[in-house]
Amino acid sequence: MGAPRWKPNVTVAAVIERDGRFLLVEEMTADGLRLNTPAGHLDPGESLVEAVAREVLEETMRPFVAQALVGIHMGRLQRPGGEDITFLRFAFTGSVAEPVAGRVYDAPVVANHWLSWEELQACRARHRSHFVLDSIGQYRAGQRYPLDLLHTDPSLYGRA
């Protein structure tokens, strides 16, 4: 029996722009209140596109339709005390509808904000990670990849 198999955490994020402003979530983290693009972990039995739609709905109360992949980012978080996590992050862009009546933000989200690029740059010390500006910057530069770049095998859903 060998050493435990290393597995990065797979996450998804959404870059959502409307009229030159970007939708950010304000959430409580171990480092206090931080701003992030709507994002979260891939759950078992869901595709990347399904995961980003679920995360956006949970964190913004808004249905999301992914239209393109903006980028794939890999990074490492090391904290005092030994926490060492590698993330593989898939950033999408798409459109959102109005908030669904009766829904509330999933914890730890406390608010949503529509911020301009200039406002985002001015508050970078409050960003959850540098991936916030990285992915929005890639979006602003026109970086888009078709969703058919991603393939979800039917075996994920228990079908051969």
Distance between the first and last residues' Cα = 30 Å
Helical segment count: 3
Uncertain runs are none
Tally of separate domains: 1
* Structural class computed from helices and strand pairing: alpha+beta
Describe the structure.
InterPro entries: NUDIX_hydrolase-like_dom_sf, NUDIX_hydrolase_dom. The structure is a single chain. The model has no long low-confidence stretch (mean pLDDT 94). It contains three helices and eight strands. The protein starts with 8 loop residues before the first strand and ends in a 20-residue tail after the last helix. The strands form two sheets. A four-stranded mixed beta sheet has the order 5-1-7-6. Strands 2, 3, 4 and 8 form a four-stranded antiparallel beta sheet that branches. It has 160 residues and is an alpha+beta fold. It has one domain: Nucleoside Triphosphate Pyrophosphohydrolase, CATH 3.90.79.
